[in-house]
Amino acid sequence: MRSRQRDLLGVDAVVKETAARFNKPTSKDDLLKMVRGINARLVLHETDADTLRSNYLRRPAGEILKSGKIMTEVSGAGGMLIGGCMDQTLVIMAVLRAKGFVSGKNLFFIRVKSNKGPAHSLAEVELDGVRYFVDPRNERVYGSLDKFVKIWLRAIRTHSGGVVMRGATPYAAGVRKLSDAFHPNAFIP
Could you give the 3-state DSSP secondary structure of residue 157? Predict the structure, then answer.
């Protein structure tokens, strides 16, 4: 018997209320406006490694919105290990589902893992046959996944390629726990 996973992209009352604040996006600019509006309701919340491990991929989008907190964890050296991109991607995907987008059809979860260790979450959204890659953490929308990957690899100071994971949900993309979200050689809190 399969274990029942929580629907992290579930459309509950909180997600519906948030979605009602926006029109259904029809352009790149609409997506960006939605991301910025949602991010204005969320704050980075630094947490300890144990709390992070116990909550990673366990808080549905509605719970994240209700708390108003995006989980982050900072290493002892001061470098951010978890920057909140997973929480923000879950929220934008749930809000888009509330607006009529369908996971696995015109809405996908993307996880990009570098060979150096860091990784990042995005949402892929199709609007009128055009695919966009939404980076809610950095408030950017890209017309090409390749363009995002090149910019991101440069930002984390590596030129080596990585792994792109794609699925209707994080679970479908193969991200089921914290260690799945990073390259096997990465330091994980």
Answer: coil
